[in-house]
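Let's sit down with a protein and look at its sequence and fold side by side. Please make up or recall a protein chain and show it to me in full. Label the sequence line and the structure token line clearly, so we can match residues to local backbone shapes. Go ahead whenever you are ready, and we will take it from there.
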Amino acid sequence: MKFEFSEERARALKQRWSAVRESMLGPATERMLDAAAVGAGMRVLDIAAGAGDQTVRAVNRVGPNGKVVATDVSGEALEFAESEARASGMQNVEFRVMPCEALAEPDASFDAAICRNGLQYLSDQARGFAEIHRVLKPGGKVAAVVWSAPERNPFFAESFAIAHLRLKSHPPRPDEPGPFRLGFDGALRRALEGARFGDVSVVAVQAPNIFASAGEALEFQRQALGLLTQLLEGMSEADRADVWREIERALRAFERDGSFLAEGELLVGSGSR
């Protein structure tokens, strides 16, 4: 299944769920930027930029003498990200529709490359990682955030499992594009090393899923998990509603003492050209 990142989803992430996503993704995002050594005056490639949260952080780090090139396969998401950046007065950022597997950039043209939760969806993983290696300058760094293994992310994994069970389909195999593809044992390290990156490091970062209730958590999944909603699109309206009810029942397991907390884990992988 092709992962589509629409403007509607980008707007929901930005406007409705920014605080939730900050607690979930913020620490790993900062770890990623540190691992890529993103700093003043650098030229940085942001792959699968989506709504552009991490793009803004990178722009702030490189400053007026640096530049960030934000890419994605979704023109809709990039249009939204660009409009938000321009409204904030950011000039040192460029947005380009471009797949990671075919980067229309010269060899050795970036000081650093970053990607937050996008590399696991590459249709040709080896080619995508090789392209990142190609466009980095000698000594340039890559750093990426991906979801860890399904068992370490039950908040998402259980919902996908319910959907696949109802659809009588199988979750993506570890060698197929999917949300947890690079979270399986050693997968991210192997991908980086296979693309000839050196000084490879992979660290786990906690990514708690904090909500007021299971109902709010369900609302987040319906609005923010584009891949899950796409998975259910072929069902009838009644069957789809039934699946969401089943997912909400599963989410109630994470309610405790009037609050909702589901542990999660992200991996931050990095390497040098």
In short: Residues 7-272 form a domain with the Rossmann fold fold (CATH 3.40.50.150). The beta strands are 43-47, 67-72, 93-97, 110-116, 136-147, 198-206, 209-211, 255-256, 259-262, 265-272.
